[in-house]
Please model this.
Amino acid sequence: MPAFTDQLGRKLVLNHIPQRIISVVPSQTELLYDLGLESEVIGITKFCIHPDNWFRTKTRVGGTKKLNLDIIAKLEPDLIIGNKEENSKEQIESLEKYFPTWISEVKTVSDALSMIQSIGEISGKSIEASTLMNEIENRFKSYSKKIMHFNKPRTAYLIWRKPYLAAGGDTFIGNMLNHCGLINIFQTASRYPEITEKEILENNCELLLLSSEPFPFKQQHVNELQKKLPAVKIMLVDGEIFSWYGSRLLRAPQYFRDLLDEIGK
Model:
């Protein structure tokens, strides 16, 4: 019987290639779709909005933090795929008593590539996963050459309002900011620190990015902050590009290119 190790170092033994998979993380759900696991995935969360046809047709098992354990049990999965940060530890511990459960922990693009490889192996899609990984790596390498001489602005990335929460250096978003070619002024902060407008100024912020998720920042929020931070360039950005660590990584390098062009204007 094949044994697999998840990104928390836990071993998982499966008797066969999973045929009834539940994904409880949006970015990993999209990955499963792009690996070609149309019939195998039987359950997703209400936040798994990509792809749209799965969002409309697959059974929803609650939210990432509040899974409906009864629905999951009725689906009788032979594999549940989750994430350390996005899912509740207590709920995952309850589920893994009855169902094989594989958990990712992704803080860097390298972690994401490892996750893609592992999910490919566990789902019988190793070839497809390798092809995807290679393409992501090639696109990021090509992009990294573009920014070698780019003047990196001091940047803050906000994910929440009231209070303002920023992405720290030990997050996937923080790693993506580095790959984009930006200097995270809260690089030394842990996770998602609560910050103030005063701290943004005191850290000599030049660029303030407002994410589309989890808080849906809009132009009105840009306008509000611009009045208080007139010397800072403030922009709305696609939160999925910066925080989704599955196959959406394919889109990141081109998005970064466009973003740098806009910053330079």
Observations:
- The radius of gyration is 19 Å.
